[in-house]
Specification:
This protein is mainly alpha-helical. It has helices at 2-8, 13-20, 24-45, 47-58, 62-90, 92-110, 116-130, 134-141, 149-178, 180-187, 189-196, 205-210, 214-227, 263-274, 280-314, 329-338, 341-355, 357-372, 381-409, 415-442, 446-466; strands at 10-11, 236-237. Helix content is 73%, strand content 1%. The longest helix has 35 residues, at 280-314.
Amino acid sequence: MWTMEIQASTYTLDEALSIIGFGKFQGYALAYAGLGSIAEAMEIMLLSFIGTAVASDWNLSSDQESMITSIVFSGMLIGAYSWGVVSDNYGRKKAFLGLCTVTAVAGLLSSFSQDYVSLVIARWLVGIGLGGGHLFSTWFLEFVPTPNRGTWMVIFSTFWTVGTILESGLAWIIMPRLGWRVLLALSSIPAFTLLALYSLTPETPRFLIMKGRIDEAHAILEKIAHLNQTILPSGQLVPDHIEDSSLSEDTHLLTTRKKTDPGFIKHLSLNSVLISPKFIRTTILLWFVYFGNTFTYYGVVLLTTELSSGQNRCTGMDRLHSRPKMDTSLYFDVFVSSLAEFPGLVISAIILDRVGRKHSMAIMLTVGLFLLLPLAWQQSQNLTMTLLFCARMFVSATFTVACIYTPEVYPTNVRSTGVGVATAIGRVGGMICPLVAITLVSNCHQTAAIFMFEAVIVLLGICVVLLPFETMGKELSDM
């Protein structure tokens, strides 16, 4: 009886969140984090439009056009690591303030660029801000009760799709009438909105507990319980019980860290686990999975632009201009192809827990491979857009499954690090992709470009098959 009283007098964060439940507060948190995902998607999606438009206005070469896209991904590569360090040391909320400010201000300034160099610099800064986009999902999921995290991970992914559709629709309306500068300015509005709502966003209790600020964490939990019309358990909030050699328990995506560990030594330790004999095979394979997925996804997105605007020139129907003006049908094509991500998410949800993560990715990659193959040769405009629509459906679904599989396969103490490093490797694929999708297609080497994507998909499929673990139906590891 005495033992029972001692246990009842304390409770952990996960126990508190489970009792509070998923309610109105989490709905607000999802809306804010989702807006962050929409802002990121819109800034990246507009790369499908401004490159061709700017190249036409400023008479740029295909290499210069490619750089407008690649420079954003180089900034994201820097931002992905930098904002993670800020978040872990100073809090998720302060990281939001920095990344939203950089994204919003640089995004707006890029619309006033007077020459190619100033535009590239501004877009590079936008990329640095966008590199912290993964922190929105981290912040949101740290408020979600453990039993709900898997479901809400898929739901959160829909906000990215909403952002791509919004940007495509906005470009369809704005570009033919007002031009790319207005599109750049309007696309920065979500980031400015995040800044306006910044004061209403709380720090996560998990971060505060990690820093030893128990009272502040308890106060935030009380506010959440009040908003959800529930009550906290009686007793005192305490950190999760952990062993000396591990980090705090978290059953899904997130990992809290012991505040007593020196940051530099800790990063060395975590990185050494990723390349230890137990995980080296998984780590290297996942690096290529993320690289290949990012390369292929943005390749399909950029192919929609290039094949829509460049086919007439390559077939000899538009030889009067070295850089053709963008046809208004492009915006409709990109808008419609963006809708493909919704059925892609549905496909992910349906087969993910039926055939497994690895089999799901292998099946969808195979379908995507055959859908892209006919585009190695000139097809009618309608067939081209249909194939790209279906290919994007399966490629985006593969990426969704990969983002679910990766945090499941790593143990708790290296889960966030493993996902973060894989994401950074994926950004390299995003940087290289425009050199293929834009340069080759712009120079009328469509067949070479498609076979390049086909080769990447084949290697990507081989890596998926070679992954040593299937995580469907299995508990997450803590060591």
